[in-house]
Amino acid sequence: MIRAAVLLLYNLLLPLVFLLGFPGWLIKMLKRGGYGTGLLERFAWYDESIEYEPAGVVYVHAVSVGEVMIALKLIYQWQADYPQDRFVLAPTTTTGLLVAKEKAPVGVRVIYSPLDFSWVLQRVFKRFEPKQIVLIEAEAWPNMLGVAKRMGVPVGLANARLSARSERRYKKFSGFVEPMFGMIDQACVQERADLNRWASVGIRRDRIEVTGSIKFDQLGAAGPQRRGEFQRMLDVFGEGRKVVMAISTHAGEEAYIGEVVQNLGEEVLYVAVPRHAERRQEVARSLKGLGYEVVLRSAFHEPRESEEACLIVDSTGELRDWTAHADVVVVGKSLLGEGGQNPTEAIAAGVPVVAGPSMGNFEPLVSMLRDAGGIAIVRDEGELLSALRRCLEGGVEVARQCGSALEVLHVHQGAAARTVEILRKD
């Protein structure tokens, strides 16, 4: 009864929220190049004839690039263990969709995630007849859960994490949240601390199991690989130069880090990889203001003065392999932003990692890395400069940092395989 009332209220408000948010959504789509990528699929209108669609699928719902990469890792593992299973992967954002289409295994149907209207979801589920729905991390939409429940389709969370802050926020709306999360059939969570948190917001305690983080699981996954194409680009700036790479940066961080790098001398090349590629012109302006000659990866050309130039990697889905070309990586959204970004790809590449003080989105991993000496945490420009100099010099201390970081990641090995076994048994 309570669940029905919550869904009724949600469906009364949803059309109004959609109408108010639709113009902003279209503007964002325009900025990110989303038109012409199958936008009507969000309303369950498809070009593909239904008789050619896979049926009886595992339907995997992801949001953006980060969640899509986790979903792909899970799907690859699932296919290796159960090759007869078929999949639909449904990202929400344009960038996530493009990465999914580029990197999905053969035979995986990639669609735009449908809007959370019951009639839309019913059309989608009728088309693909999912035998199971997997939600990556915590992206649980009320009507998706409700329609799945009515159709008898089990729903599982994969790689789920719930911070103490999010738990407190959910509890403020417990009357709405708990009936929704109560429809989750299985939750695979990253850390032991997540067990009680998820149980407190409505998922039955006996349906929650700790698997570790798929994002941090390096078992069976090819590590970051050096690409000849990338190395040839870097060599244009001068062969043998050390590379300081700032990854997944947010507003202001490219210039903040870039100004520090200028103090390291001409033998060091600065490479910035913004979190959102569409910020390329904003980033370029900020670095030109520091005196850099800016070269974009998307419009690559030989710089006039290589010693004064930097490279902006304004691409999507390439970060993993770019990190293999770095001599030291600085993690974005940790110096001027809030919460930090994922350091594990650089760690897997054997590259020393430096981050700012704000890495809360990756706790407890970052605390474990810090305690083990596997990451350098800096608070200001002076500490950043010192950390970069130390990492570029190399030696026993830096090798120990990289080795300690890999040992911390070891606890998450096998997370993808454990997740598959738990979800599939339902």
UniProtKB/TrEMBL annotation:
Query: The 3-deoxy-D-manno-octulosonic-acid transferase N-terminal domain covers which part of the protein?
Result: 39-218
Instruction: Indicate where this protein is primarily found.
Output: membrane
User: Catalytic activity annotated for this protein?
Assistant: lipid IVA (E. coli) + CMP-3-deoxy-beta-D-manno-octulosonate = alpha-Kdo-(2->6)-lipid IVA (E. coli) + CMP + H(+)
EC no.?
Answer: 2.4.99.12
Biological role: Involved in lipopolysaccharide (LPS) biosynthesis. Catalyzes the transfer of 3-deoxy-D-manno-octulosonate (Kdo) residue(s) from CMP-Kdo to lipid IV(A), the tetraacyldisaccharide-1,4'-bisphosphate precursor of lipid A.
Could you tell me which PANTHER family the record lists for this protein?
3-DEOXY-D-MANNO-OCTULOSONIC ACID TRANSFERASE, MITOCHONDRIAL-RELATED, 3-DEOXY-MANNO-OCTULOSONATE CYTIDYLYLTRANSFERASE
Protein name per Swiss-Prot or TrEMBL: 3-deoxy-D-manno-octulosonic acid transferase
Q: Which organism is it from?
A: Rubritalea squalenifaciens DSM 18772
